[in-house]
Amino acid sequence: MSMATLTQLEYLVSVAKFRHFGKAAQACHVSQPTLSMQLQKLEDEYQVIFFDRSKQPILPTPEGIPLIEQAKAVLREARRLDYLSRNRSQSPAGEFRLALIPTIAPYLAPLFLGHFTKTYPDVHLIIQEMTTENLLEALDEDRIDAGILATPLKGDSFEGRPLFYEPFFVFAHTSHSLSHLKQVDEGELDAKDIWLLAEGHCLRNQVVRVCSVKGRPGVFQNVEFESGSLETVIRMVEQGHGYTLLPYLATLSRRFSCGVLKPFTHPTPSREVSLIYRRSQYKLPILQALFMSIQRCIPKELPREPTKQLQIIKI
Length: 315
Fold this sequence. Notes:
- The protein is of the alpha/beta class and 315 residues long.
- It folds into 3 domains: 6-86, Arc Repressor Mutant, subunit A (Orthogonal Bundle); 94-164 and 271-310, D-Maltodextrin-Binding Protein, domain 2 (3-Layer(aba) Sandwich), CATH 3.40.190.10; 166-269, Periplasmic binding protein-like II (D-Maltodextrin-Binding Protein, domain 2), CATH 3.40.190.10.
- It is 36% helix and 20% strand.
- Strands 3, 4, 5, 6, 7, 8, 9 and 10 form an 8-stranded mixed β-sheet that branches. It has a two-stranded antiparallel sheet with strand order 1-2.
- β1 and β2 (59-60) form a beta hairpin.
- The longest helix has 22 residues, at 65-86.
- It is elongated and about 75 Å long.
- 32% of the residues are buried.
């Protein structure tokens, strides 16, 4: 019995990812006939049909699914072997793909990137912004090595290390009633005056939980507002319309033109921000370096551990 080659397994996993032979071939930098021929050899070897070609897009067959998952595991271990062979000293080195959610990336990345790149020049760090859903999917498909996002997550597919705990503040226009309070209690929040991010952002879900929003919130009765940018929401408030909630890092080193920040009463609604990765992640020296660099560079007043003064809001 001959063994499947790593190339054949790459083709198999690529087709499973794209659900399309042409797109898979393009991603693998080969012609479609070449890819199809190698998959046919693999099917003949294992006496199994991997994909239902009558479907559009094509779908893995029930008997093909466990073999595709095992192919992913084999490729992951092959990459581990290659990485370990080139990095025997176990020092932080090599390529590392990191994704951050959009409500964290613009505020956290500038704090630690300078320190990290200077301290670990042998690491080639590739950073992307992704929503939580896309980040978890990319992590599951090994398209990224780790992610930074709000936790805790449901399920146990990934390992996570909390980086810090970030309190929320109310950000209201100076003319809004909340701006005149010394501290804000959650019961004083009115859902009809709040600006939210679009669906798909975990910060939206957390804010909805804090404010007990039911139905469709909106400052204007005839406007449905969908934004993926926290900065856009901030601008809307500064124009005199309603209020929103901001995480601590988004409030640093900036002057708001027509808005004020108000703290919550204790326990303060907060989010847990963690570095997550697959359980089988093998670039542990880089992970540790990243974790230590971030913790060193974030403001000292941000708690590294949960306290009784914080109320961690679930996603």
